[in-house]
Amino acid sequence: MKRKSLISSIVMAGAILAGSVALAPAASADPTASICGSNYHTVYGPKWEYSYYNVYAGDVYIAYNASNGYNCAYFYIGDSTTKGSLGWQHAIQIKSANGGSSVVNAGRFNSFAGPVYVYSPSDCVKAVGYVTDPKGNDRWYDTGWKACT
After folding, report:
1. H or E segment at 2?
2. Keywords, A to Z (predicted)?
């Protein structure tokens, strides 16, 4: 009788474990192609960014399109609670190491800031993601020079 009880307990524990594994959330897909374009591939990111109060604010990405030489950057807000509709502001900036252009997209976004593009087929680029809370407290994340070819 004890053996049957032990086997039943093991089977029940296995069923509970299997059920909890099945309920685990799936990893989110890389949104780069839908934001930058189909020929862009992530070369940096996701890198989490946090607000002044250490609230998750989103992820900074850099992507590259080898067929046209452009880099793309965006600040993916996704599931963050730092939505523009709640008074938060986000910005993304991309810069080329060759001293060329610097492009910024800023505002009250609910999904993502950007995309911003810079032509830099043979130079490094960096992106800076900014988040400002409703009280005006700022935080930013600088990727440093990436996508160097």
Report:
1. helix 2-23
2. Signal
Strands (E), the chain: 41-50, 56-65, 70-76, 89-96, 102-107, 112-119, 125-132, 138-142
CB 113 within 8 A of CB 90: yes
Superfamily of domain 32-142: Immunoglobulins (2.60.40.10)
Which of 141, 84, 142, 93 minimizes the C-alpha distance to 114? 93
- Number of residues that make up the chain: 149
Q: Which two tokens stand for residue 140?
A: 């930013």
- Tell me the whole-structure pTM to 2 decimals: 0.78
Sheet holding 125-132, edge to edge: 102-107, 89-96, 125-132, 138-142
- Decide: 83 and 110 in contact? Cβ < 8 Å: yes
- Do 93 and 49 meet the contact criterion of CB atoms below 8 Å apart? no
The residue whose two tokens read 């990436």 is 146
